[in-house]
Amino acid sequence: MPTRTLRALAALLLALGCSTRYVEEPSGREVYLRHCASCHGELGTGDGPVAASLKRPPSDLTTIARRAGGSFDERRVMQVIDGRTLVAEHGTRSMPVWGVVFEEELEGEPYAGYTSLLRSRNLTDYLRSIQR
Question: What pLDDT shows up at residue 81?
Answer without folding.
Answer: 92
